[in-house]
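re: the backbone from monday

yeah here it is again, tokenized this time
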């Protein structure tokens, strides 16, 4: 629709999903009220059209957990200029941890071009979330992050793929 009549079809499912993903990510990252990020979701609907107008030929849909990976991959599959990653964000709590075999299988899917997002984030520690977590919880969280980061790096190296690395408040150990 953008190329024909120069308007964005606001009912286009993939674009709405892209806007929803962006809004969800912003709410999770900043703890903003979801109603405050609704305008961002609407702006994201126009993103693919703006990319085309700016001659951006490729974009990467970043995977942050396993349950949402099918939607990330579907978005990439629905558009010729979008690609996906396979991985688990270091702060993805309550999500299944991928096995090496699972990461390799996801990375083998069409249009998956990198492993990640993975890395270390010592800013969002459990004790800083105000839920009564202890220093021991922080250490367990950091150990999980390090284990997953190493796993993702090993899979990326084995497959010859780049790795999308997340690093916050932990430059030295990264």
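seq for it, each position gets an aa:
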């Amino acid at each position: 629709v953008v190329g024909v009549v120069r308007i964005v079809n606001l009912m286009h499912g993939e674009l709405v999903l892209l806007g929803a993903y962006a809004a969800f990510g912003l709410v999770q990252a900043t703890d903003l009220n979801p109603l405050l990020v609704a305008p961002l979701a609407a702006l994201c609907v126009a993103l693919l059209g703006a990319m085309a107008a700016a001659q951006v030929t490729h974009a990467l849909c970043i995977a942050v957990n396993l349950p949402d990976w099918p939607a990330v991959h579907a978005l990439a599959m629905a558009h010729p200029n979008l690609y996906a990653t396979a991985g688990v964000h270091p702060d993805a709590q309550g999500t299944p941890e991928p096995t090496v075999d699972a990461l390799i299988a996801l990375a083998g899917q069409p249009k998956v071009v990198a492993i990640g997002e993975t890395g270390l984030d010592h800013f969002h520690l459990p004790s800083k979330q105000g839920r009564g977590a202890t220093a021991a919880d922080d250490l367990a969280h950091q150990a999980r992050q390090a284990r997953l980061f190493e796993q993702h790096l090993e899979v990326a190296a084995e497959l010859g793929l780049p790795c999308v690395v997340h690093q916050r408040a932990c430059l030295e150990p990264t």
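Strands lie at 59-61, 82-86, 112-121, 163-168. The helical segments are 2-5, 13-30, 34-45, 47-53, 69-78, 100-107, 135-159.
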